[in-house]
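Researcher: Predict the fold of DUF4097 domain-containing protein.
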Amino acid sequence: MKKIVIGLILVGAALVSMSSMFFHNRMSNETFTTSRTVKKLVVDDRNMPVEVVGVSGNKTRINYKKSRDIKYKIKQTSNTLSLERKKTIGFSFNFFNFGNSNPTVTIEVPKDKLKDLQVDTSNGKLVAENLTLDNLDLETSNSKMTISEVDARTIDAETSNGKVELTRMKFDDGSFETSNSKMDLQDLSFGEGEFDTSNGKINLMDLKPSKALSLSTSNSEVNGTVIGDKDDFAITSKTSNASNNLGNHDNGSKELEVRTSNGDIEIAFVR
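Model: Structure tokens for DUF4097 domain-containing protein follow.
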């Protein structure tokens, strides 16, 4: 009988502890708004999806969740706005997802005023859309990355174990990387573009390089369409245990490099 009573007491204590953890880690919706011009936006987060969207108007608005384990430092100096996730000291209640309501950081920026965007997170989806920039730098891990309606001079975008989707973009120089996932590339116009993954298919539709295009994966196929004439490209292509419709030749003012293994290479040139 004594063992039963002790067991009930322990169970009750555990339930009270769990309820306390849930209570103390409840989330609240927070908004930070500035009407001052923001030309550079820096986001330093972790374990959090982040979305940056260009909008009309002059205000920059940050919508985020706040809890015992999720706190941010927001600072604006001159034309730079930064959002930094504070470090959690001690035990994190988020380990068990208590109080978790699928938080996401959503940032709205004036479409044509922001010039430099840097976002660094982990284990969370990254989205950037409807932006005109000089420089775009995105990094996450173990999550999907989506970029659409973006016009930039340079782009450096990296994730891992997550799909990359790029749609309706223009850039001078771009590098895009993931692993163990596919890449979907559609309506991209650029000077030089490098697209690198592993163990995932690369689908391309209407890519228009003016200087160079590099596509690399493994154990998967690469197929789709490139805008231009095949004779305009100096081509290097290689696969194994599969078909390749490109071949290799040295002539051409543009460069096209396609590499994979155990997967077909099937690229058509269209006007």
